[in-house]
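Here comes a specimen:
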Amino acid sequence: MSDEIILETRGLTKEFRGFVAVRDVNLRVRKGSIHALIGPNGAGKTTCFNLLTKFLDPSAGTILYKGRDITASKPADVARMGLVRSFQISAVFPHLTARENVRVALQRQRGDNFDFWRSKHALDTFNGQALALLDDVGLGEFAETQAVEMPYGRKRALEIATTLALGPELMLLDEPMAGMGHEDIDKVVDLIRRASANRTILMVEHNLKVVADLSDTITVLTRGQILTEGDYAAVSANAEVQRAYLGASRE
């Protein structure tokens, strides 16, 4: 894990008609780390993600990716730079097969041309890569299954595969365990750990066991502000975190 900072915010703030959802957030994500953003409901976590990936424009502050100011960049532009996100709700094409979903993402290698008007045979060159990615996330047997027919946990794994197909250097995962049972959670935890081998991951996650197992650094948000930051042992022992996140402090 490098000490190099891949993503940084300075004074990041977002106001909605007088309500400040994110206030003066200074975040630093180290290259090669798994960094978790946690906090109670309404703490501003998803708003932060939307700001970082440019689905929202900040009211104030600066966002730096690999030292480059991306505050005014568009979502597609930051994705091309290698900063790619997933969403809380599975965002795959339901009536395409798993292979076809990954293949659509792999078309990014052709630049801005997505070939929707060309014969599907023009895309066959991506089949090998698509199948390899599906194997990597444990979905090889689902390659020819339509996404709509896949179990929920496998559908989330497919979304991660399509995210990986975009070649991200920094993956932002928005509640990757949402709605999953224990067996699916274990599989996706293993998948995220393997995916982090050569990239950085920033994730929002409510499951504290997952956060404890995966994260190198945890940033705790409350009421749109950073409450504290550190590893799981330090964060979980913090009395303010216990009051804000768990609703009570230990004696």
The chain has a mean pLDDT of 87.
